[in-house]
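User: Can you predict the 3D structure for this chain?
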Amino acid sequence: MPKEWARIFPGQAWQVAEARHFVAALLEGEDRNLVEDAVLVVGELAANAVRHTRSGWCRGWFLVVVGFTDDFLRVQVVDQGGDAEPMVRSVNASVDQGGRGLMMVSACAKDWGVKDRPAGGRCVWADLARVGR
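Assistant: Here is the predicted structure, written as C-alpha cells:
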C-alpha cells in the first residue's frame, strides 16, 4: 500500500512555488534526479491548474498528492475542472507563451494521465520511477 501525503493550496499563481517546495521537502534524501523531476512535474501541473481551470478563479484551490511505493513516486494535482481536456501539444504547434508543460511531464514520467472527478474536477497524475529501489 502506498504512503501518501497531501496538501491543498489556494489557486493563485504564487502558490505554484509553494507546491514545488512541498514536494521537494517530502523527497528529501531521495535521488537528486527524482527530486528535480518531481518538482518540475508538480510545478507544471499546478501551473496548469491555476491557469486553465476553475482552480484559478476567486476562492479556487488545487490539491497536491504525493504517493510513494517501492518502485515509483506518483504526483497528482487535483483541480476544480475546466472546459478543455489536458493534452500534450505538438512541438510544431504555434504557442505564444507556454504550452509545452505536459510535454515535459511526459518526458519525465514513466506514465501519466488524467482522471475526471465525480464533483466536476479532474486529477492529472504522473508516475516517476524511483532509481535503485
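The chain has a mean pLDDT of 87. DSSP finds three helices and five strands in the chain.
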